[in-house]
Amino acid sequence: MASMRDAMKRLQVIYDACSPEAMEQGAAAKSMDDFTRIRKKLHGDCKTIRSLLKEREMLTARMGTTSETAEASYRIRVAIRSLKEELGRMDDIMAKEDKKKKHKNPEEYAKRKEIAELCHKHVEEVEALEKKKFTDRVGSDRIELMARSGDGARYRGNAAPGGGDPFMESDLAPIDPDVDEDFKKIKGKNQDIDNDLDVIGKGVSKLKDIANEMNTELDKQNEMLDAVDTKVNNALDHVDNVNIKMKVALEKMMRGDKFMINCILLCVLLALIAFVATEFTGGL
User: Fold this and answer.
1) Nearest-5° angle of CA 186, CA 188, CA 190?
2) CATH of domain 12-148+179-190
3) Among 39, 222, 235, 280, which residue's Cβ finds the most Cβ atoms within 10 Å?
4) Does residue 257 have a pLDDT over 80?
């Protein structure tokens, strides 16, 4: 599972580096000064580390302390170390600015000082989250141990109540509000898309109902056509029966006519014979 996740992350890194969006971001990054670039990187890295912390916490809750959670902890420590290195570069930039007696833009300098302090607070908060989870695990083991001896209630009463998502939520202002604003716009667009999909889903549901009604109506019409076909077949059978009866009747009638004709011909023949006989007998 760990190797699969690593492979997926490598593919994601390759995509992030080669995608058109990444190229556009790279072109935009070239036009930034070092302070702004580091600021944006710190913003993204802090969010990434918070996600890693949350993922590790979920793994620990589901599986306990395993090689996967140890690997997750190692990745988090490496990410925090890289985060602090970037913060050190920002401090170097501000140290050079501090040495200047006059600043071209005092307002921009004061704003950068505030941003640098805010970055330090975010990094400290991330480090505190990392240390807090370790302390919480040790404390939970201690509570469980004391509970077995009957003194656990006293320690449970001192446990910090949970509220919200400590990994993804912070009371501090965002390091780069422009990025958060972009995320808000993306979320708004996603919400609009979801609303459109809901409307489309309702339309599809109505079309499905109409199609079902049409199928029901077609079934009824098919039943009616079947009934008509049955009646037509019955009528044809009746016509066939009538034709057969008429044929039989005609044949009988033809037989009677032949008998009458034969009788008439026989009478004519007898009359001719009698006539001939009288002629011959009268002459004698």
Assistant:
1) 70
2) 1.20.58
3) 39
4) no
Does residue 205 or residue 181 have the better pLDDT? 205
Residue 204 one-letter amino acid: V
Which residues of the chain form beta strands (DSSP E)? none
Tokens of 259: 């008998």
The amino acid present at 56, given as its one-letter code, is R
pLDDT score for 109:
82
What one-letter code names the amino acid at 77?
R
Q: Which of 8, 133, 142 is nearest to 59 (CA)?
A: 133
54-63 long-range Cβ contacts below 8 angstroms, 24+ apart = 54/165, 54/167, 54/168, 56/133, 57/133, 57/167, 60/137
For all residues of the chain together, what is the average pLDDT?
76
The whole-model pTM stands at 0.45
Task: State the average pLDDT over residues 235-262.
Answer: 79
CA angle 112, 113, 116 (to 5 degrees): 85
**pLDDT tens-place string over residues 18-46:** 655 555 555 555 667 888 898 888 888 88
What sign for the dihedral angle of Cα 62, 65, 71, 75?
positive
Nearest Cα to 116, choosing from 94, 98, 101, 100? 94
CA-CA distance, 246 to 179, in Å (whole number)? 98
If you average pLDDT over residues 151-162, what whole number do you get?
A: 37
DSSP structural state of residue 86: H
Domain boundaries, the chain: 12-148+179-190
CA distance 41 to 176: 9
